[in-house]
Amino acid sequence: MPLLAPAEGLPKVVATPAALRALATDLSAGDGPVAVDAERASGFRYAARAYLIQLRRAGAGTALVDPIPLNGRCDELAEVLDGPEWVLHAASQDLPCLAELGLRPARLFDTELAGRLAGLPRVGLGPLVERLLGLALEKGHGAADWSRRPLPEEWLVYAALDVEVLIELRNVLDELLTNQGKREWAAQEFEAVRTAPAPA
């Protein structure tokens, strides 16, 4: 089944300190792990910085954060995100640019790495979502120039969908690894990614 739009609609992009504070309040009232993703402009800009951050948590819904007008000041967000487990896909790609904004996980679950450890043949986000959740995820704008402003609405939809089912995917992979007797090994691998030094 194709996943074409966020279930709760496209959220307004958080781009002011007041909106960021409101988001921090919403996220702190949420429950469980936080799905996290970042969009960069690697093929267009020299610096691999985050130009959009996507977040999703049960009870708080999905949020899109533009760090550019915030001048990279995400202190309120960092406080809220310091405790819960982060769920990322291919975390080593996004953690450095998130760390530049002061955002660092205390705990991590990497769905790409989990897929590899579980022995699945294709571990891209789209193939994993299709195989394990039966959903077809649009993967058309990942290599776009995310430094562009304003960001087109269809790009924002794509970005929101990247975290739409990430927590459900995490839960299925967690159960799969547990059934294979690999959960402890996976936890060690996730921790190695979380604590790896930033690339020079």
Please describe the topology of this protein.
Blueprint: E1 2-3, E2 13-14, H1 17-29, E3 31-39, E4 52-58, E5 61-65, H2 75-81, E6 85-88, H3 91-99, E7 107-110, H4 111-117, H5 125-133, E8 136-137, H6 153-164, H7 166-179, H8 183-195
What can you see in these coordinates?
The structure is a single chain. By secondary structure, the protein is an alpha/beta fold. The chain has a single domain, classed as Ribonuclease H-like superfamily/Ribonuclease H (Nucleotidyltransferase, domain 5), CATH 3.30.420. It has eight helices and eight strands. It has helices at 17-29, 75-81, 91-99, 111-117, 125-133, 153-164, 166-179, 183-195; strands at residues 2-3, 13-14, 31-39, 52-58, 61-65, 85-88, 107-110, 136-137. Strands 2-5-4-3-6-7 form a six-stranded mixed sheet, with helices on both faces. Strands 1-8 form a two-stranded parallel sheet. Helix 4 packs parallel to helix 7 (166-179). The protein is globular, with a radius of gyration of 16 Å. The chain starts with a strand and ends in a 5-residue tail after the last helix.
Strand tally: 8
What fraction, in percent, of the residue positions are helical?
Answer: 40-55%
Q: Structural class per helix/strand content? A: alpha/beta
Largest sheet: 6 strands, mixed
Question: Looking across the biggest beta sheet, what order are the strands in?
Answer: 2-5-4-3-6-7
Q: Please state the CA-atom Rg, rounded to the nearest Å.
A: 16 Å
Number of domains: 1
CATH superfamily: Ribonuclease H-like superfamily/Ribonuclease H
DSSP helical segment count: 8
Strand content: 15-25%
User: How does the overall form come out from the CA principal axes?
Assistant: globular
What is the third-level CATH name, the topology? Nucleotidyltransferase, domain 5
